[in-house]
Amino acid sequence: MTESRPTRVLLADDHTMFREGLAMSLARYGGMEVVGETTNDDGAVELARRMKPDVVIMQVQMPFERARETLDRIREISPTPKVVIVTMFEDPRMMRDFLKLGVNGYLLKSSSTSHLIGAVRAATLDPEGGNLVVGMPREMLENADEGTGGVLSARQLEILLLTARGLSNRQIASRLYLAEGTVKRHLANTYKKMEVGSRSEAMRKALQEDWITIGDISGEEDEEDEEREA
Q: Which of 9, 135, 168, 216 would disulfide-bridge 212, Cβ 3.0–4.6 Å?
């Protein structure tokens, strides 16, 4: 994928209002193009084969074995698209199972559009597939007692990006309406997951691994998006 073309996104969700609303939000966001929509997993596989998206955003289909089969079929597509799961199931064990299947993101449908966009961008900036984004309440993640090592939450990714832009903990807290201590805790957990010991090491590794880019740090796209939402 080159920087000159938008990220191609395929949406698979049987909730029409959710899917259409998400399509409009992504269309407003610079650098993303919705190339197809479908209501089911079979449609997701067929469209992915034809449209060659960069990312498939799909809802969880039950039973679990059915979802596993769908993901296996998507992985057979070349080039293989990244997969971000959106779900209403607030189950940390399910999240852990899907991360083991190799998805690139797992978010609740109650997550904000900005968090979902962050998950899509994290997936496309990570060619090796090691950068996982999870959008679940912290207590649910804490209850997932295995399989979550190295996973950055959507909030941690957001704070990491703001840190890269040079904002202090106090400035980040003000911007995100958080307590400064909460920001410090998020950063401490992020450093632990990234296996680094400081802000500068985290920025260096994030850039080296392409988790964030110089363009992300400039913040130009985010500023334009905020102006559109204002």
A: 216
Question: How crowded is residue 141: how many other Cβ atoms within 10 Å of its Cβ?
Answer: 17
Ranges of each domain in the chain? 1-135, 150-220
Per-position b or e across 40-66, b if 16+ CB within 10 A of its CB:
ebebbbebbeeeebbbbbbbbbeeeee
Phi/psi of residue 184, each to 5°? -60, -40
pLDDT over 90 at 161, yes or no = no
Task: Please tell me whether the peptide bond between 81 and the residue prior to it is cis, using omega within 30 degrees of 0.
Answer: no
Sheet holding 152-153, edge to edge: 32-38, 7-12, 55-59, 82-87, 105-108, 133-135, 152-153
CATH number for the domain formed by residue range(s) 150-220 = 1.10.10.10
Neighbours of 221 (CB within 10 A): 15
Instruction: Please state the pTM of the whole predicted model.
Output: 0.59
Report yes or no: 22 and 116 within 8 Å, Cβ to Cβ: yes
- Span 1-135 CATH architecture: 3-Layer(aba) Sandwich (3.40)
